[in-house]
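Re: the 209-residue chain
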Amino acid sequence: MQWTKQNEQTVYSNRWFSVNLADVELPDGRHLDHFLIRLRPVAVATVVNEANEVLLLWRHRFITDSWGWELAAGVVEDGEDIALAAARELEEETGWRPGPLHHLMSVEPSNGLTDARHHIYWADEGEYTGHPVDDFESDRREWVPLKLVPDMVARGEVPAANMAAALLLLHHLRLGEDTAPGSAAPPRGAGNGATSHDEPAADPPTFGL
């Protein structure tokens, strides 16, 4: 059973996305007006170090008024290689320049509304180049033990579905079945192997709780 787009027109557009209105024919012959968003590809990246800690950002999303752990991410510019865009975003947002990137997964996080594809990469080494240029993107940057990921996702601390999927896959690739939700004790504060190259903001959220 397939919906068929008959036509599509742009209602609003800027350099990042366009809002379009499509005339869609349903399998029974009825038509409906369907709004959709055409968006540039999104490049995402992180680093996992030798201690199996993953580089994450703790940030606030004003649209949903929620806090959560995320990987560095941003739109791919015209003519830009996706992997290079992922490396650029990682360095701009965390101050870490990744080593050779490995493609982890590509997902369509909201394909009932937008055509956005998120391309997620990771590296097993990186170089700290200094304070991130885009430090306004997050409250803090930390190395978080991968073993804590299942519990973090279960507690809702990784609210973005694409980020949760990527972290769970990294957990599986690096640790296999060594840990499962509820098996890792949550850390107190930013200790227990999680470190930061930036001073935490005033009254930072308690990591892992």
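Residues 161-175 form the longest helix (15 residues).
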